[in-house]
Amino acid sequence: MNEKNINSLDEELFEADKLVILDPKELTFSKEESGFMTLVFQGKTYKKINLTRLQPFYSKYEYVSVNYENDEKEFIEVGVIRDIREMSKQQFELIDNFLEYKYYMPLITKVYSIKENMRGSLFVKAATNAGEKTLCIRDWYRNFKLIGGKYLYVCDVDGNKYYCDDIEKRLDKKSVANIELFT
Known about the structure:
Layout: H1 3-16, E1 21-22, E2 27-31, E3 37-41, E4 44-53, E5 62-69, E6 75-83, H2 89-102, E7 108-116, E8 122-128, E9 131-137, H3 140-143, E10 144-147, E11 151-155, E12 161-164, H4 167-170, H5 173-180
Parallel strand pairs: 1-6
Antiparallel strand pairs: 2-3, 3-4, 4-5, 5-6, 7-8, 8-9, 10-11, 11-12
């Protein structure tokens, strides 16, 4: 590969990796009857916008990607909102409601028991803010884990996600002991 090809490759990768921070004052979101979000930004209208929290476990309001899929089914990122709290009250509420619905995760408030079956699945009997649940978790070393030593993340076989943001502060000692056997 000659030097010219290497330089053009570097430039292409650099362009793909460029982070565009969006000015909240230039963004106007609306929710269509279909439930999809639309964005008007710098005179251009983007349909079927997707909003993604780039740090979903650590920040609800900061670093939200604004993206969509083009006609060729390619992922296109318009840019990133550094903090959605900088938006107008109406725009903030619209985006926050969208994200809360997208990232809905019941809070685990108690873990009664955890049992492992012979196939390697965990069955977690727990209380959540959405009621008592028995969660079936396959591949539990990936779907039942502590992040940062205190944030519990759980994903059941149906793709439903649950969390406890601080097991030491929110859960009783028996619940913590049950969790620690499997994390």
